[in-house]
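Our consortium's second objective concerns turning raw sequence data into structural hypotheses that experimental partners can test. To show how far this objective has progressed, the report includes one record in full. It was chosen at random from the queue rather than selected for favorable results. The single chain below, 300 residues long, was entered without modification.
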Amino acid sequence: MATSPPERPLSWDDLQHFLAVCRAGSISGAAALLGVNHSTVLRRIASLEQTLGARLFDRLPGGYVLTASGEALAQQTTGLAEQIETAQRRLMGLDEEIKGVIRLTAPDTLVHALLMPLLQRFRALHPGVQIQVVANNSFLSLSRREADVALRGTNRPPENLIGRRVGDIQTALYASETYLQTLGEGAGFDDYRWVAPDESLAHLEQLKWLHQRVPDERIALRADSLVAMADAVTHGLGVGMLLCPLAGQRHGLVQLAPPEPALDTQIWLLSHPDLRQVARIRAFTQCLFEALSADPRLLH
């Protein structure tokens, strides 16, 4: 009896993840090969198995092993990835000349603390590229093409994007030397006035940290920007939990305690999968990844 076709068409994304597992020999290897999260590979394999109505891998203690159905699919799709990549290159022309517009979104903190020297370096290498920077704390949608590349601080990166983690950014307690002088000797935590984020930054772990430790009446200033907070602390309005690379750029600030591990934030370089073959995006993301991965101001 003939096998009935799948009720829904095969997804190339699902099949691509299957082929990556076959090529890499493991889920983690496939995730590294494709530049995605471990959970994304698992989700794509599950989707493909549901479409085909067949189990493709046996989950054994030693790892994932192809079933008979998986072996048959692997044999039938040998060389398919290379054929599709060749077709994509021909259709897109791979945009081999590195020129055009790149729209980059990042929080103002990362733009001020990390990015500007790197953008200058990339432009010196590729003067035909125009970089558009959207520096704010709102998360523009790469899926809706509001931006081409994003540098984001998040411990939960979106699974639908291509992402590489470049390091972690640390947060510590800082004050200006002039502010500390106004407190006198022997002053401590309970004597501080504070500079804090406002509720528009409620996604930050820092706000939860402050709610647990600092009464509202001791807040001298709230801001919707971590850059503005650093400026306020620099000008003596109080102490504040500041990003270490941002505080390190300001003269006269004193770190009052080691970085708080609970406030460490992962920094991810993200782009849309559809742009992976665009030469200017590949060159740009690789340039940022190499530089940020070696930046001593980030925790690696």
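The partners drew two points from this record. The chain is about 40% helix and 20% strand. The chain has a mean pLDDT of 86. Both points have been shared with the crystallography group to help prioritize constructs.
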